[in-house]
């Protein structure tokens, strides 16, 4: 009979790391200037100890150094709520508000720090913040200025708009204006958000309401001009521009708004002069500033200055390389094709036909009007596009696709066929546009059936021949095969394959 084995009693100590543990590890990494590791440990520390003000403060400081000012602000606000008597947290709240441009709040927290700790280690820095904020605001730090919370929500709404989340922006901005009846920046942004979701009348009415209460509100006037431009209300636009031309703002943000608006409206000379003056004053470090400076410089005939400004933009935002608004013009592409016909592209983009929209989304990527079309608030409503259309617009905007993913690789190969057709036939006529219509119908069906698009040159030749032969009996396989540099049997093989995706055979 086997003896039962008694389990051994062991003293097992389970190690459960705490927020304090990761906090100390982060401090150790900071001493060694290993900021990436410190960031990782502090993030974990906050997850484990979300109510520890010291951990929140330290993580907030690190986020500030990484220029993640919105995240830093939230962390420091949380730390201050947990420990309102900690003077260090108050100082860093002053600093992050200064970075965010909330000068009234930065000034308030800096003064609060001096009252809380007259001999504090950040005494000199606090005084510098006070001097800086008073200078930047022209000494106009009124008690009635909006709170940091309101400014933060306004900034959050603006970022929603930048990411195309207009409905979320509308909800947030409506809350702000309901509680702050004279906070005009929120009214202006809400008007733009209304316009982006198709509420044009509400947008216009709201801007007129701002001007009734604040007659010289430059942002409202500029926004009205932009709305009139996109609505093609040219008489109204002319009247507003006449007013804008007389305005000579002093505030930096107003000069920027005016210059960028002039540039967008095609008043490149006025836009360039306004923005160039700002640059001479030292204004910069804002990608959108350099975009409009480069845009207005180029189209007012200052090409060298435009390229210099674009290099500054790429320094700040490397993803913009290759997206110069004048790129196709510099390559001396012909402007005669339908790809450069703004009216044609606009009509196609607004078409009820999916295939027509697809053609326009592709040709948009070859057009000198690319940036204007993409910037239009209502022409391209991404949420209403089909999955195939979304892929096309991504391709037109130089989105990177993974060639390791079979479906994406097949899509890219299909688009190479479209590019070959463009290379052989541009500038495109209206008939070429119909050829693209046919190609994209076949391509979408082929993708749905897992087609690999192996010989792109033969597929391009087959497509061109199929379209031409449907319009004229004079088209020959020999002619098209020679034009594309392939044999007639090869082209015939791919004609037969494509016929399987042609709508006629449904």
From TrEMBL:
Keywords per UniProt: Repeat, TPR repeat
TPR repeats: 19-52, 53-86
Pfam families, per the entry: TPR_19
PANTHER family named in the record: LIPOPOLYSACCHARIDE ASSEMBLY PROTEIN B, TPR REPEAT-CONTAINING PROTEIN PA4667
Entry protein name: Tetratricopeptide repeat protein
Organism: Chryseomicrobium palamuruense
């Amino acid at each position: 009979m086997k003896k039962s084995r008694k389990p051994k009693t062991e003293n097992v100590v389970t190690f459960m790391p705490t927020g304090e543990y990761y906090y100390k590890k982060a401090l150790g990494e900071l001493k060694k200037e290993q900021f990436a590791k410190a960031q990782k440990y502090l993030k974990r520390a906050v997850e484990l100890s979300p109510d520890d003000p010291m951990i929140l403060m330290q993580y907030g400081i690190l986020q500030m150094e990484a220029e993640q000012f919105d995240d830093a602000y939230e962390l420091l606000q949380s730390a201050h709520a947990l420990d309102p008597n900690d003077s260090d947290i108050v100082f860093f709240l002053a600093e992050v508000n200064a970075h965010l441009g909330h000068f009234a709040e930065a000034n308030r927290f800096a003064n609060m720090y001096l009252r809380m700790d007259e001999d504090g280690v950040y005494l000199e820095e606090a005084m510098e913040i006070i001097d800086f904020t008073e200078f930047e605001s022209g000494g106009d730090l009124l008690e009635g200025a909006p709170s940091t919370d309101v400014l933060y929500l306004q900034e959050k709404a603006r970022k929603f708009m930048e990411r195309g989340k207009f409905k979320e922006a509308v909800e947030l901005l409506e809350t702000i204006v309901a509680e702050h009846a004279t906070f005009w920046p929120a009214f202006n942004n809400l008007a733009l958000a209304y316009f982006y979701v198709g509420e044009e009348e509400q947008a216009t009415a709201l801007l007129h309401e701002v001007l009734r209460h604040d007659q010289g509100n430059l942002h409202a006037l500029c926004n009205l001009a932009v709305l009139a431009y996109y609505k093609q209300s040219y008489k109204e636009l002319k009247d507003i521009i006449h007013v804008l031309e007389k305005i000579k703002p002093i505030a930096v943000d107003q000069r920027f708004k005016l210059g960028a608006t002039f540039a967008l409206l095609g008043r490149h000379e006025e836009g360039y002069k306004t923005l160039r003056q700002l640059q001479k004053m030292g204004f910069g470090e804002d990608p959108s500033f350099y975009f409009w400076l480069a845009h207005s410089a180029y189209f007012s005939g200052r090409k060298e200055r435009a390229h210099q400004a674009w290099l500054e933009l790429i320094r700040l935002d490397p993803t913009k390389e290759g997206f110069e608004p004048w790129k196709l013009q510099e390559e001396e592409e012909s402007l005669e094709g339908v790809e450069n016909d703004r009216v044609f592209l606009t009509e196609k983009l607004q078409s009820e036909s999916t295939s027509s929209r697809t053609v326009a989304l592709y040709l948009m990527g070859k057009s000198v009007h690319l940036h204007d079309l993409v910037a239009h608030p209502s022409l391209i409503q991404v949420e209403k596009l089909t999955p195939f259309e979304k892929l096309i617009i991504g391709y037109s905007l130089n989105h990177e696709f993974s060639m390791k993913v079979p479906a994406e690789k097949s899509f890219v190969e299909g688009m190479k066929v479209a590019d070959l057709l463009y290379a052989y036939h541009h500038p495109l006529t209206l008939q070429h546009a119909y050829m693209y219509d046919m190609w994209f119908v076949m391509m979408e069906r082929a993708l749905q059936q897992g087609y690999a698009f192996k010989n792109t040159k033969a597929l391009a030749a087959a497509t061109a021949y199929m379209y031409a032969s449907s319009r004229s009996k004079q088209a020959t396989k020999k002619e098209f095969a020679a034009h594309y540099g392939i044999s007639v049997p090869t082209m015939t093989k791919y004609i037969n394959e494509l016929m399987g995706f042609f709508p006629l055979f449904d």
